[in-house]
Amino acid sequence: MEFRTRLLETLRAVRSVLNEPGVLVGGSEVPNLLEIDARSSLVVSEDVDIVVPVDSHDGVKRALQSVVGFQQSAEEPSVWLPQRPELIEVNFIGMDSGPRAGETYVFEDAALPLLVFGNLCLLRPGKPVHVEDLVIPVPRPAGLLAEKLLTDRSGDKGDRDLLVVMGLLLVSEPADLDELVTLYQSLAPDQRYSIRSNLGILSLLEPRSQMPDPVPHRARLAKLMARFERADAT
Amino acid sequence: MTARLHERVRRMRERALIRAWEYRQRAYSKGVWFRLRRVLVDAERAFSIPEGDADQLESEGQQPLAVGHELSPAKRIFFVRREQLLKLDAVELPVRLTAPPLQATSVVLVAHGVDRPRRVSSAASRHSIPRCTSSGNVTGRLPYGQAHA
Predict the structure, then answer these.
(1) B5-38 burial, b if ≥16 CB within 10 A, otherwise e?
(2) Could you tell me the residue range of the domain that residue B41 belongs to?
(3) Phi and psi at residue A87, to the nearest 5°
């Protein structure tokens, strides 16, 4: 069964969760979903991140009661493991846009504890993706680009995540990049440095099979770097 | 039940501390790799040149970039115009932080051309992610509409 089918089948299975206010599909599957007809051509890990605002945690727990086909991992309680081959792993991650925005912490709960990632507070709901019978809430590209460029990474996983940034950039509109630069200006100096550092690494990465090739787009990456630097100067 | 989550938070906070430390060190030796990458971001192509050619460039008033002197052994790195390349015995290098560019002692870079990439409408580029196949070929429509180099 092709990956796209499994991804959509998984999102169908957790549809009740996706209907909760503020819940988003995040992570590396977003560029896959933003392709024409959610073609899902990028090779990423076989899981999907569901971003849960801490304010919607109760609602998500209730919605999960109607979800079937998964078993919560005993070792990683925010991971729900598929019980059927047509599903993939679901990873619930927390987002806090309230007083603790920007902080990374554990949201304690007996049934669904969450690791709240500080950088996820950069996400804002975007235009939902309509595919088949699904309406999939995804973040605006700018916030996801900033979040992915900020996250500390290393090794092959890190390189692949940066190539996912490349994929996102390729489906971004000029207005998305304007928003990214505005968002960049709102960040702390060390965060802006990290974004520029990771953008530089992305520009120099070797092509990988079944991933976007940064080489033909290096001029575009250089322009984005220059825009960040001009933003720093103002 | 949440011990692993707490452990991940601890590791992430450690990385955040390291990131802040790296930022504080950015003006010193630790920041040299950032500065070298930054120079390469602006380069469309890179070439190794003989020492004699590097001497000639300097004698013509071309200043090597400061970042090259921060490495050991030091490198002379220049940005040159495309037409200058014709006078040099230049061997092309990949624009990456891999062994060949790091082993070269004198390097010339050519900045991304102002006439490239050729832009097509954003509507035409949307929702198509070109990607490499295992053979290294590219599938999908290139958003800028240019031929793949």
Answers:
(1) beebbeebeeebeebbebbeeeeeeebbbbbbbb
(2) 31-111
(3) -115, 160
At residue B37, what are phi and psi to the nearest 5 degrees? -60, -40
Unique residue bearing structure tokens 């979800």: A67
- Please, which residues bridge with residue B108 across strands? B47, B78
Say how many C-beta atoms besides its own lie within 10 A of residue A61's C-beta: 16
Residue-wise pLDDT tens digits, A16-66: 999 999 999 998 899 999 988 898 888 778 899 999 999 999 999 999 999
**Residue B74 forms part of a structural domain:** yes
Whole-prediction pTM value? Answer: 0.85
Residue B138 lies in a domain: no
Q: Taking CB atoms and an 8 Å cutoff, what residues of chain A touch B138?
A: 213, 216
SS3 content of chain A, % helix, strand, coil (to 5): 50, 15, 35
Q: What is the pLDDT of residues A91-131, one digit of tens each?
A: 999 999 998 999 999 999 999 999 999 999 999 999 999 99
Residue type for position A182: T
Segments making up each domain of chain A, as ranges: 1-139, 140-234
Q: Tell whether the torsion through CA atoms of A14, B12, A109 and A81 is positive or negative.
A: positive
**From the CA of B43, how many Å to the nearest CA of chain A?**
8
The structural domain count of chain B equals: 1
Distance from CA of A200 to the nearest CA of B (A): 6
ipTM of the complex as predicted: 0.85
Instruction: Output DSSP code: residue A228.
Output: H
Q: Measure A13 CA to nearest chain B CA, in Å.
A: 25
CA-based nearest residue to A148, from A119, A117, A170, A171: A119
Q: Is the dihedral of CA B41, B45, B50, B55 positive or negative?
A: negative
Residue B137 touches chain A, beta carbons under 8 Å: no
CA B83 to CA B65: how far, in whole Å?
19
Tell me the CA end-to-end span of chain A in Å, nearest whole number. 51
Written as one letter, the residue type at B37 is R
